[in-house]
Amino acid sequence: MYVELKNINKQFGDFQASRHVSFTIERGQLIGLLGPSGSGKTTILRMIAGLETPDSGDIFIDGVRVNDIPAAKRGIGFVFQSYALFRYMSVFDNIAFGLKVQKKEQAFIQARVTELIKLIGLEGMEKRRPHQLSGGQRQRVAFARALAPNPHLLLLDEPFAAIDAKVRKELRAWLRETITKVGITSIFVTHDQEEAVEVADEIIITHQGQIEQKGTPIDIYRNPKTPFAAKFVGESTEISAYHQLPGFEQVDGFDRAVIRPEFVRMTKVAKEIYPHASGRGVIEDIFFRGNALEVRVDLSGEKITAYQQLDDDAFEVGEEVSVLIHRLYLSNEQEVRMVENLAINHVGSVFI
Amino acid sequence: MSFIHQMIHKKQKNVIPGFGLSMGITITMLSLVVLIPLGSVLIVLGNYTFAQVWQMVTSSQALASYRVTLSTSFVASIVNVVFGILLAWILTRYRFPGRRILDGLIELPFAMPTAVSGLALTVLYSENGWIGAILTRMGIDIAFTPSGITMALIFIGIPFVVRSIQPVIEELHPQYEEAASILGASKTRIFFQVVLPEMLPAVITGFGLAFARSIGEFGSVVFIAGNIPYETQVTSLIIMNHLDQFNFLGATSIALVMIIFSFLVLFGLNVLQAKVHKMAREA
Amino acid sequence: MKDRIIKTILILIGVLFTFLMLILPLAIVLFYALREGVVMFFSAITEPFAVAALNLTLLSTGITLVVNTVFGMFAAWTITKYRFRGKQVLTALIDIPFSISTVIAGLAFIAVFGRIGWANPITEALNIRIVFAVPGVVLTAIFVTFPFVSRELIPMMQAQGNEEEEAAALMGAKGFYIFRKITLPKMKWGLLYGVILTTARAMGEFGAAAVVSGRLRGRTNTLPLHIEMLFNEFQLTAAFAVSSILVMISVIILILRHVVEHRMKQEEG
Lengths: 352, 283, 269
Description:
Helix content of chain B is 80%, strand content 0%. By secondary structure, chain B is mostly helical. Helix content of chain C is 81%, strand content 0%. Chain C is globular, with a radius of gyration of 22 Å. The interface between A and C is medium-sized, with 22 and 16 residues.
């Protein structure tokens, strides 16, 4: 493994930012630290960088314990949330800064900076000041500046937070591609699950200073290990009286359930396929989401969200529809269990 | 795990280098210029008994000077709060010719040497001065009375109040008042119920700064006060008089009272400020 | 319509207040300075004691500026760039000179170097005079304006944040290099603003100087002290003539201050 955190704790006043944080990261991976604000993800990143000191626990990078190694000597590139570009320096001088500090030769600096400017596609803008750049361009400069001294590990704090929604998607793809091309082990922090899912090889979910789950995006999505992970990744509705849903029964020790929109299938009443597994709901709201419709349906008092493809049956608000829920995540304080709609299998076997 | 071990681990390392040097220079200079000289006042006080000091700080002349200082400072600061709010309001909310010059003039008392201000005010309000002559005919004396001191303190205090309140009014978005007026509130009602509560912390700060400055003010007061014992002698003047007579006991004792008093004012200000913030949050 | 009337009344009150309280004192200085003619004015300001007082004021202001700028930069850097225990206390201690009477500032140096001061035997042995001499005047000017530069810099540097400095430190830059290349360019206008305030206050310093200078005409008299002396000798025209020099400098300072403030707002926006 390349980066390892062992039982890290960190407290700011009476706020516990990290509790027993332990995880490992393999070389060459692109990792997303995902969590709501205040969940301690940025603190973890800053401790790895050496910008914060953990109260207890050990941090290893490439097998070396770095707790007592100053930030500047850890071989880390850091991209700040607001980029922290040196406002009184040109793009060129910003990128060259780390190399100048290392007293590299002028010719080498020239070559390296030119190479990086080409990598970020800002040829011709070397002389501009940060305030003359767009948000996306600033991010690229910050990225190049962090990469210039050839760090072994790249840390990015909310790299897309300060960018317009429009450009964000494009930049995500670019960043992912470029990091893969450079081949550097990277960790980025985000509160946006869509961003984490799209960019990261692996996601680490943080919540109240603790690590909830670590895994590939698909893995976390399919097998959430904790109630928080189940709710935080993907759209979801939480309900308590899940035994009233057709096809599900009360399971001891699980007091509530999470329903994902993908678990819900709605059809016109006339087209209902599994009567035993389905219930009747009333459409409350329909939102157009560009490539699909988001439908809110009232199923005997529970408000459930589902998606409807544009070429599926068209519904109207107030219409009664057949609602089939084929899967649920049951949860309690500690664990999550996936259960299937019993009635589907049952009825299905009769048909065969 | 040992306590020392925990201490070492608790210690936050600073990322930006140079802490020791810059902290060292800061503390050294602060000690040389401020802390050691002020501490020396206490050392001098240590030469005297408590009874001696107590007699000095409670002498009738000293007590009279506290009364004069506090009452004139208080009245001047209240006047400044009223006009300070008004000036801050018209400077931020209205556009009129000469506004920028008016805005610049507010700072005049900061920039003008206090002795010059004091001299100018004395001549202005003396019996045959431009304003003094008019007021004398009306039977009002300003120069060499507590009113004169108050005038001087209004002069030096006004920028503190205006400059404390101005940014708050600037930040206070007109939309806020527009919302209230759409709801049908009258202008005066909007001002007293919407705008004034927003300004309150800044008003308190402005008042406190002006008041603290007034208590210690010397240069602008010394001319217009006239140094009449029991009537127009402010506390700074008493210290000065004691020093002129090489009465170090008197000077240091009364200085101690003043220092304690300024700290009380600043402390009270902070407490009041915290209360107002708390009230604002609960409301 | 009603709004317009209220607006006009408020502006009139504001202008009247400003006129009575601020403009008239300014005007009266210039009026009295010139009321016995330009010749009197010039003889008053070129008189040797006035010139000596001006020179001492400029000297003391100059030294104060250097010392307090250095201190202000170090203090602001220490307070805004590092985390340490007792930061609140340090900030409060730096602000002390704001909250106490200038007379007490003078008294404090008498308590060190005066006849009763603990350092008196030392200075006497070395044959140096501090109190009732030029060093005393300079020291009190430094004391009185000590927090001015750091007070301007601290909020500004706090607002600018430390990320740029942290980024530079992460790449291995040393403290002084970070200060010179990154922090100094960011704070130059705030620094200038603090320097202007210090100049205004140091030049006009009266209470503390009155205590420690001993008012030796031509030797330890600063301009404000010289003015007081002329006033006490009933030389009103001369007093105002000398005052007008200080007033003119104050007006220039006010204008400079506005220009700098404008530049600061531009840089922010």
